[in-house]
Write a structure and sequence with these properties.
By secondary structure, this protein is an alpha/beta fold. The chain is about 35% helix and about 25% strand. The structure holds adenosine-5'-diphosphate and magnesium ion (MG).
Length: about 250
């Protein structure tokens, strides 16, 4: 297997007496979708937040492209190419699709953009923005305010904005949540292509999507990884069956 882009070792985080993540180790390698599954409260979101730097870990290491990033704050990790997309806060609802993605392009260039209206005459912002919009499957919707997008289109906008950050890795926490079957199907196709852009650590409850997409699956239960393997290996794993997948898998 190729050298990991992201290498997590012994990552732990407690909230009082609760060990939300307990010595978690996992790798994300180029070209893969690595799904992280587990019951509610297993610590999946806590793990993602530790990796992106929203939560500081108590112990362990996070290496990204060979560099220890555990002491960097979240914006510094994002600038290195660790993309946490699907953050509701980053989309400006009153701005159009093109303006939102142009802002993301501007932000990726290191300029502060929070209070700036992007100059839509600026080809250096608009050309890459149009490219990312098309890549995310939103061509033709450039002039629509984000607030008027459907749920599925909104997710595509978030993908376009994540692409603008030129990510080296995507960390996605339940991107299918709240989507109908058609939206899930479309997003599944987009994520499948996106793995070529940058590998994806995918937390997802929708097991159809996980089994369709994942190159590898890790199963988190009570803060601990109990198994990592291919889809077939995980489906056949008796511990996983009893701990999580149950009868409806
Ligand atoms: N900020 C917090 N303070 C205290 N407890 C938390 C906090 N965030 C999460 N937890 C607890 O940590 C455990 C793991 O939560 P979470 O990572 O959200 O699980 P998952 O995403 O797998 O459903 C849960 O028991 C949750 O209640
Ligand atoms: Mg969660």
């Amino acid at each position: 297997m190729a050298d990991p882009i992201l290498q997590i070792r012994g990552l732990s985080k407690s909230f009082g007496a609760l060990k939300a993540t307990d010595a978690v180790s996992l790798d994300l390698v180029p070209g893969e979708i690595h799904a992280l599954i587990g019951p509610n409260g297993a610590g999946k979101s806590t793990l993602i937040k530790q990796i992106v730097g929203e939560l500081r870990h108590d112990a362990g290491s996070i290496r990204f492209e060979g560099q220890e990033i555990g002491t960097l704050d979240a914006p510094a990790r994002a600038r290195l190419g660790l993309a946490r997309s699907f953050q509701v806060s980053s989309v400006m609802p009153e701005f159009t699709v093109l303006q939102n993605v142009a802002l993301a392009v501007q932000g990726a260039s290191g300029e502060s953009f929070r209070f700036l209206r992007p100059a839509l005459g600026d080809a250096a912002l608009v050309d890459p923005a149009r490219f990312h919009i098309a890549h995310a499957g939103l061509e033709g919707r450039e002039a629509v305010p984000a607030a008027d997008l459907s749920h599925g289109e909104r997710r595509k906008l978030e993908i376009a904005m994540a692409l603008a950050l030129r990510p080296q890795a995507f960390l996605l926490d339940e991107p299918m949540a709240g989507m109908g079957p058609e939206g899930s199907r479309q997003l599944t196709a987009i994520l499948s292509d996106l793995r070529e852009e940058a590998p994806i650590l995918l937390v997802e409850h929708d097991m159809d999507a996980v089994f369709a997409l994942a190159d590898r699956i890790s199963v988190l239960v009570y803060g601990r990884i109990i198994a990592t393997g291919t889809v077939d290996e995980i489906r056949a794993n008796a511990d996983v069956q009893s701990a999580y997948l149950g009868e409806d898998a």
